[in-house]
Design a protein that fits this description.
The protein is α/β, with parallel strands linked by helices. The chain has one domain: Phosphatidylinositol (PI) phosphodiesterase (TIM Barrel, Alpha-Beta Barrel). Helix content is 39%, strand content 13%. The protein has 13 helices and ten strands. Strand 9, helix 12 and strand 10 form a beta-alpha-beta unit. Helix 6 crosses helix 7. The protein is globular. It starts with a helix and ends with a helix. Keywords: Hydrolase, Lipid metabolism, Membrane, Transmembrane, Transmembrane helix. It holds the Pfam family GDPD. This is GP-PDE domain-containing protein. Its main location: membrane.
Length: 336
């Protein structure tokens, strides 16, 4: 009887302590110093309003007041850091060639019309990369019903972005596990004195680890492996006791997969797993705890007002969107 009482009292004490620290993490952790705080984040510069990852897209987003530019980086054969989502340029330029096989001067221009990845029916490779270990997704259908157009079809250099927007925070997705790419990006960030205006990383654990080792002054994001660990700690009550090096949690809203595919063509088990992933990941208590610890929570990639509202109602710090104008209009009416 005494052993049972001891176990119950110990368990009760753990649960109460965990609940207290979940609500009041400042009792155990000093909040991280936030060098910038962003609500409005333009995904690939705003891929729904201009050609993705172009200077025209970045200028448009900054001109309407975005808080942060999100972009992707690769390395050319002559070791130039370029802004492009894809390593292979078939989708974006029509030329089946890898960026790493060409010098910067040899890169083909973007097509004048590109699909918007996170609109209904279009390919969602980013979500597939992030969630393939937990979501058994079939290949999404590609549809031409949503696209962007533009005259600026040149693949820019990362340093051009830094020079053009010296005061704008930039979120860099290191797209490949390449030591030279990581070193070159770090050197550019240091050269332009942007450690306080940059966050970098990838879904891959090894890439994020290399980023941190290369330059610990640039804040990093949670990779997929660490997101899964974060969820495990949250649901076992251990999260309030564990310190983290990461300063940003960037996660998809799983429910948007249902709009990217045709729900009637999905199996019941697929819909259930998407619902389960969404239920486990989209938790206000989790987001509130992290933000109280100075860890910003960004949800991607949301393009509808009801998605924006849900993310902010759940306590997300910011939202990544392909439509910066639409998000700006929403935030104008959404209370801080």
């Amino acid at each position: 009887m005494s052993a049972t009482l001891y176990v119950l009292s110990t368990l009760g004490g753990y649960v109460l302590t965990s609940a207290l620290l979940l609500k009041c993490p400042g009792l155990l952790h000093r909040p991280k110093r936030q060098r910038f705080r962003c609500r409005h984040i333009s995904h690939r510069g705003g891929a729904g309003e201009n050609l993705e990852n172009t200077m025209a897209a970045f200028h448009h987003a900054v001109n309407i007041g975005t808080d942060m530019l999100e972009l992707d980086c690769h390395l050319t054969k002559d070791e130039q850091v370029v802004v492009s989502h894809d390593e292979n340029l078939k989708r974006s330029t029509g030329v089946d060639v890898n960026i790493s096989d060409l010098k910067y001067s040899e890169l083909p221009p973007y097509l004048c019309k590109l699909d918007v990845t996170f609109q209904k029916g279009n390919e969602c490779s980013d979500i597939s990369a992030f969630a393939c270990s937990v979501l058994p997704m079939a290949n999404p259908l590609v549809s031409p019903e949503s696209h962007s157009e533009g005259k600026d079809n040149r693949i820019p250099l990362l340093k051009e972005v830094f020079e053009a927007f010296p005061q704008t925070p930039v979120n860099i997705d290191i797209k490949v596990n390449n030591n030279v790419l990581i070193r070159k990006v770090s050197e550019l960030v240091s050269q332009y004195k942007r450690e306080h205006l940059t966050v970098w990383g990838n879904v891959n654990y090894e890439v994020v680890s290399k980023c941190l080792k290369e330059n610990a002054d640039i804040p990093i994001i949670f990779c997929l492996q660490r997101v899964l660990l974060l969820l495990g700690l949250f649901y076992t009550g251990l999260l309030p006791f564990i310190p983290f090096k990461e300063e940003f949690l960037e996660i998809p809203m799983p429910s948007i997969i249902l709009k990217l595919k045709e729900p009637e063509k999905m199996s019941r088990s697929q819909k259930f797993i998407i619902w389960l992933a969404d239920t486990l990941l989209m938790r206000k208590a989790l987001f509130d705890h992290l933000t109280a610890r100075g860890i910003q929570v960004y949800i991607w990639v949301l393009n509808e007002e009801q998605e924006y509202k849900r993310a902010f109602d759940l306590g997300a710090t910011g939202v990544m969107t392909d439509y910066p104008t639409k998000l700006k209009e929403f935030l104008h009416n959404y209370p801080v």
